[in-house]
Specification:
Strand order of the largest sheet: 1-2-3
Largest sheet: 3 strands, parallel
Shape: elongated
Distance between the termini: 17 Å
Strand content: 5-15%
Number of helices: 3
Oligomer: single chain
Number of strands: 3
Helix content: 40-55%
Length: 98
């Protein structure tokens, strides 16, 4: 909520192997929110996976504070940049769904 502060946990700060295990550990540590970095997600991300992850967070009492993603917009216009733009657009939707 606005004006309140809490404790969050970033996935890359731990040696926990996967997103689900990370969520369980975050809940056990009694943090308020988690940062789910895109490169820890499986290669195939379906709407069912995202909604299941959102539900899992909710049941554990965790908010998703942010969803960092990688991008390289410093390459010249062309296929490489188009690929990064598509990647960012996809992750904006995933983050919105979370």
């Amino acid at each position: 909520m606005a004006g309140e502060s809490g404790l969050g946990l970033v996935l890359w700060t731990t040696d926990i192997p996967g997103v689900t295990d990370f969520l369980e550990k975050a809940a056990a540590w009694d943090v308020d929110a988690v940062e789910l970095t895109s490169y820890y997600f499986p290669d195939e991300i379906t709407p069912a996976y995202v909604s299941g992850l959102k539900r899992h967070c909710h049941l554990l009492g965790l908010e998703v504070s942010t969803t960092p993603i990688r991008n390289t917009f410093t390459v010249p216009a062309g296929p490489a940049r188009d690929k990064d733009v598509a990647h960012v657009k996809r992750w904006l939707q995933i983050a919105s769904d979370l």
